[in-house]
């Protein structure tokens, strides 16, 4: 396989390869989904000081290590346009067909992306194919998604998340090699606005932009989302939310569904 740019991308009009149309929902993504420095350290440690890194489903460039030569792959034009000027432009491509030679990179990474892919196993095998060292996947464990308090107020949103995230066991099986699965604590003031990032700040989920930056909300009918939001707003205003979950406001970290999976290739037989 050559490094020639593959210009074909399935999905939406802007090239989104998965089931969410980031041409519609991705406009404010970089405002609400800013990489959190504490989570960034976890990702960077897992990459092990790699010099060359491919970031698959790179979006706006979150969690790309500053000290590495990063090649970003992103099918959505809306997301590629939001990459900061200090980052290299992303290649228009999909995980399932990476346009690189075998073993091209020291390491590979993907964050909050595998649930968007049309064929998760194929994309993960491609990441392993083009990578000599660690493959790092940050995702959510679908068996834990519904444990979050938001399920009390917006059950269809978290049902959607649990349905879309691939099982951790499926990810490790596709990657092969030696895999380690590490829970990632979520800080109370997390700057990366996925749903659980607001565990101690429920008011933030009343912001339409914050909800739009969490793709699962886009799969629920608008009138249902408005009803969910109204019920959450009323619970916060009445004190009912704090009566049930207020202790979370004082908790510095949440052990939620966020996990980091690191796969190292099997050693080559002599």
Automatic annotation (TrEMBL):
Keywords: Methyltransferase, Transferase. One of its GO terms (molecular function) is S-adenosylmethionine-dependent methyltransferase activity. InterPro entries: Methyltransf_11, SAM-dependent_MTases_sf. This is Methyltransferase domain-containing protein. Residues 56-132 form the Methyltransferase type domain. GO terms for biological process: methylation. It comes from the Bacteria. It holds the Pfam family Methyltransf_11.
């Amino acid at each position: 396989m050559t490094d020639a740019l593959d210009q074909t991308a399935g999905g939406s009009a802007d090239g989104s390869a998965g089931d969410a149309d980031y041409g519609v929902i991705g406009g404010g993504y970089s405002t609400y989904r800013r990489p959190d420095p504490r989570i960034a350290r976890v990702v960077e440690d897992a990459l092990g000081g790699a010099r060359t890194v491919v970031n698959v489903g790179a979006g706006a460039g979150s969690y790309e290590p500053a000290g590495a030569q990063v090649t970003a792959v992103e099918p959505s034009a809306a997301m590629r346009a939001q990459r900061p000027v200090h980052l290299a432009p992303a290649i228009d491509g999909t995980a399932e067909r990476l346009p690189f030679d075998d073993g091209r990179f020291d390491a590979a990474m993907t964050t909050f992306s595998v649930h968007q892919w049309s064929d998760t196993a194929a994309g993960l095998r491609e990441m392993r194919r083009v990578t000599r060292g660690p493959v790092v996947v940050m995702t959510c464990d679908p068996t834990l998604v519904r444990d979050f308090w938001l399920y009390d107020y917006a059950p269809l949103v978290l049902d959607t998340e649990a349905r879309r995230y691939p099982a951790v066991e499926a990810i490790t099986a596709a990657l092969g090699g030696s895999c380690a699965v590490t829970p990632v604590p979520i800080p109370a003031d997390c700057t990366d606005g996925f749903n659980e990032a607001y565990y101690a700040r429920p008011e933030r989920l009343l912001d339409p932009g914050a909800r739009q930056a969490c793709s699962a909300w886009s799969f629920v009918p608008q009138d249902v989302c408005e009803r969910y939001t109204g019920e959450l707003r009323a619970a916060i205003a009445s004190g009912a939310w704090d009566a049930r979950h207020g202790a979370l406001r004082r908790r510095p970290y949440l052990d939620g569904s966020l996990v980091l999976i690191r796969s190292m290739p099997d050693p080559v037989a002599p």
